[in-house]
TrEMBL record:
Any single GO CC term annotated in Swiss-Prot or TrEMBL for this entry: cytoplasm
Domain of life: Bacteria
UniProt entry tagged with the keyword Transmembrane: no
Lineage: Bacteria, Bacillati, Bacillota, Bacilli, Bacillales
Protein name as annotated: Helix-turn-helix domain-containing protein
Coiled coil regions in record: none
Family matches, as InterPro entries: CheY-like_superfamily (IPR011006), Homeodomain-like_sf (IPR009057), HptR (IPR051552), HTH_AraC (IPR018060), HTH_AraC-typ_CS (IPR018062), Sig_transdc_resp-reg_receiver (IPR001789), Tscrpt_reg_AraC-type_HTH (IPR020449)
Residues annotated as domain HTH araC/xylS-type: 415-513
């Protein structure tokens, strides 16, 4: 029998659920019931259960929070929420938490029983494969992995397909890979990729075997039965659905369709090549087979000459040339290849840049965020776009630092930055936004701005907003709250306080004076 916990701070409602719903006939044992959410949480911390039935609005800890903490402890836990009509905000939170069921009070025992039967069907479906044979899940995942890799003989394949991997759809068949972007190696992430795979298994109707297999802590595989015209929208829908609920992104790929199960290794190889090209194709997307065609730059200089051009542009403070040269470098055929080659080339380039800058009398550790990010960061970049962005920013900051040694140095970008800010005073313009727009780290941008503008960036924003506000207050047709909104303040009180601090009088007093 499945085990359930009942929670409701209303004693009569709790007793009603206990006594009126036919739990034993549903196949459920009520192992704990309480009118205190904290007591329920303590029980769940120490006991494995299958279903949590809880009221939403309760003192100390809501049913939403109880469910969230319980799911963190037991990820496969099913939840059924019961709420009053007036608890609309709680209802939205329950939906966000992916509740398995949601009922509005007053509710009778039949409604609860019907909803529970639906949830139990999902539990039965999830549990069924593991009961067929010992270690069924582990065995069939291993079989699928061996099938895709081509390490299974035809005789073994046909013998095991009927037992462990009955095909539930006809072809053509496509190998599909799903990979979590930017993930560290730990036990929790093993569970993460398993959860992602489970979501695809539950939502993807055209899975050839009805399940997939984990390949690593970041990557999983499955087999899709159908055409690319149906595959792409199906995969994209589930990928976006998962991302809407989680903080990470997913990259997926697939291989060409094959008519026979035994031909899947060819499709799997194409899918692997496609997802391995994420370095060039970009992440957080679906990559079709044969998508990446490397571009050979025939009419530009070789890598050695371009590297010298980059070094010279950095020391000469020619930022446009820095950008152009980095683009040309990474378009070279000799630079392209597997991601390992890209990273090695980038490390070599940064070593040359470090040596060149130090030869010109500048310490790299004083420049930009080199020491903060470090060479190890290159290993974590997943796309060539991320590498180029970091390289541009680091080269810019090295160039800026060297240029500041000149007595007549003027920050060439300051006028452009000021114009950029002026066009965004009505919005919530931030240091991060502007630094990103001009390819600087926040710390280096903040230092340069104060050094050359003579004021911190935050003080500059306030000053420019107040100057704009004074101009707008000259217009009698504008109300003061409208002026506040036009200079980026959503709170009239906050605007009035800032204006008085800046000008020594309130906006109303300033308007009367003029």
């Amino acid at each position: 029998m499945y085990k359930a916990v009942l929670v409701d701070d209303e004693t009569y409602d709790l007793i009603g659920m206990q006594q009126l719903v036919p739990w034993p006939s549903l196949g459920i044992e009520i192992v704990f019931s309480t009118n205190k959410s904290m007591a329920a949480l303590r029980y769940i911390q120490n006991h494995k259960i299958d279903l949590l039935v809880t009221d939403i609005k309760m003192p100390l800890m809501s049913g939403i929070e109880l469910a969230r903490l319980s799911i963190a402890l037991q990820p496969e836990l099913k939840t059924l929420f019961i709420s009053g009509h007036q608890d609309f905000d709680f209802a939205k939170q329950a939906l966000h938490l992916r509740a398995d069921g949601y009922l509005l009070k007053p509710v009778d025992e039949q409604e609860i029983a019907d909803k529970v039967r639906i949830i139990l069907a999902e539990l039965d479906e999830a549990k069924q494969p593991s009961q067929l044979l010992p270690n069924y899940g582990i065995i069939r995942q291993d079989m699928l992995r061996r099938l895709l890799e081509g390490s299974m003989t035809d005789d073994t394949l046909h013998q095991l397909l009927d037992t462990y991997m009955p095909v539930v759809h006809t072809g053509p068949y496509h190998a599909v890979l799903i990979e979590i972007d930017h993930v560290e190696a730990n036990l929790q992430n093993h569970q993460t990729i398993d959860w992602v795979l489970l979501q695809f298994s539950n939502q993807l109707a055209r899975m050839a075997f009805g399940f997939g297999c984990r390949l690593s802590i970041t990557r999983a595989a499955l087999v899709y039965a159908g055409t690319p015209h149906s595959l792409e929208p199906d995969i994209e829908h589930i990928r976006h659905s998962i991302q809407s609920k989680k903080s990470y992104t997913l990259t997926a790929s697939y291989g060409s369709g094959v008519l026979q199960i035994s031909e899947l290794p060819r499709s799997y190889q194409e899918a692997t090549e496609a997802i391995d090209s994420k370095m060039f194709a970009g992440k957080n997307r679906l990559i079709p087979p044969g998508h990446i065609k490397f571009v050979t730059a025939h009419d530009i200089s070789d890598v050695k000459i371009l590297t010298e051009q980059l070094l010279d542009a950095v020391t000469g403070y020619r930022l446009v040339t820095v950008c152009d040269t980095i683009e040309e470098l990474y378009n070279q055929e000799s630079v392209h290849g597997d991601p390992l080659r890209i990273r090695r080339f980038t490390m070599l380039l940064m070593t040359k840049l470090e040596d060149y800058v130090q030869e010109n009398g500048e310490s790299v550790n004083k420049s930009g965020d080199w020491n903060h990010v470090g060479m190890a960061a290159i290993e974590r970049f997943e796309t060539i776009g991320e590498i180029k962005s970091w390289l541009r920013r680091t080269a810019f900051e090295l160039s800026e630092t060297m240029q500041q040694k000149s007595d007549n140095y003027q920050w060439a970008l300051l006028p452009d930055i000021e114009r950029y800010v002026q066009t965004r005073l009505t919005s919530d313009v931030s240091l991060k936004e502007v630094a990103d727009a001009f390819s600087y780290s926040q710390s280096h941008f903040s230092y340069l701005f104060k050094e050359h503008a003579g004021v911190s960036f935050s003080d500059y924003i306030v000053r420019e907003r107040m100057k704009r506000a004074k101009e707008l207050l000259l217009s009698p047709g504008l109300k003061i709250y409208e002026v506040a909104e036009l200079v980026g303040y959503n709170s009239l009180t906050y605007f009035s306080r800032a204006f008085k601090t800046y000008s020594g009088m309130s906006p109303g007093a300033y308007r009367k004076r003029i």
